[in-house]
Amino acid sequence: PAPVKARIAVLAGDGIGPEVTEQAVRVLEAVAAARGHVFTLEDALVGGAAIDATGSALPEETLAACRRSDAVLFGAIGGPKWGPSAKVRPEQGLLALRKGLGLFANLRPVTVNPRLAGASPLKAEVIAGVDLLVVRELTGGIYFGEKRREGASAFDACTYTEDEVARVVRVAARLARGRRRKLTSVDKANVLETSRLWRDVATRVVKEEFPEVVLDHHLVDSCAMQLVRRPADFDVVVTENMFGDILTDEASVIAGSIGLLPSASLGEGTFGLYEPIHGSAPDIAGRGLADPYGTIASAAMLLRHSLGLEREAALVEQAVARAVDGGALTADLGGSTSTEAAGTAVVQALESLV
Ligand code: NAI
Ligand code: MG
């Protein structure tokens, strides 16, 4: 396969963001060295670190660095220093970035390493074999609707257009086609008009464009229950913004630690933003305790979805599994391996695999 040249913007952010991102960067560099690719990495400020340096959570320069890149690797942002009363908040950086880059589909895969089954509050036999992917619509729905407060009442509008639904269903159906071909669309069509639109569009798009994908519809409340009762039954789940926000947090407990889980945010093309699902963890920042596996797994998704390097992505995922199987467990996984040593374990596993 031909070597790939790619530009990657690295936005490490605050708290443990820089610690976990550093390990993911080491892994990307090891992949490049082993397979002859050339990755040009460009660091840029975001979140609290950017506020301290420039007064803005998303400086123009950072947005420009993202725009000239093929993908963005993102750590985490936020912290007590930039609390709720601050004039400029770090979180604004991430929202502005997603909107500014048109990233409307948020992918959160959940798999279970049998070695870590004990870390999950769910029974080992319930989570055995889980391999699911939630695709959440990220830029529409009630979070972005008109909001108002008038005297003793308040109002939040939930709006979706057919195009907004169709494009995220297409992303999910395409992914399902490359997996077990099972797509579950989640809505509340017994109550909400936006959900009835969602169901109609999902049905039409899958029928017309993805005939090989088997689509079923779940109501969100029953889906929430099935996710912890029979999580192995799910392949790809697609849902609107707020339902997805809730279901992805719920799904994250299956794997055992928030530190393990990656995510991707995609738009129309191959450009994407990749980040662990956790935040900046100020309680453990700066002590070498953070679990870097979620960020490393996010780098694997970057290789897969933005650079088209499926084989390399799979290698990184295997290397993480090997590191874990070899006992490189950070504190959240019940071990005492440092952030850096966990990164080293992945790099070494990778070198033995290629
Ligand atoms: P958090 O995810 O930062 O931490 C929750 C708990 O999980 C903490 O006990 C933390 O130590 C632990 N944890 C998180 N990541 C870990 C890792 N990689 N390894 C080991 N343990 C880990 O969520 P929290 O505490 O609610 O928020 C902290 C800050 O992060 C806040 O400012 C919040 O706004 C921000 N945040 C940022 C996000 C982002 O950048 N996308 C997402 C969520 C929160
Ligand atoms: Mg959330």
Automatic annotation (TrEMBL):
User: SMART domains of this UniProt entry?
Assistant: Iso_dh
Q: What region holds the Isopropylmalate dehydrogenase-like domain?
A: 7-346
Query: Which top EC class is given?
Result: oxidoreductase
User: What Gene3D superfamilies would the database entry show?
Assistant: Isopropylmalate Dehydrogenase (3.40.718.10)
What family does this chain come from, according to its entry? Belongs to the isocitrate and isopropylmalate dehydrogenases family. LeuB type 1 subfamily.
Record's PANTHER family?
3-ISOPROPYLMALATE DEHYDROGENASE
Q: What is this protein called?
A: 3-isopropylmalate dehydrogenase
The organism is Anaeromyxobacter paludicola
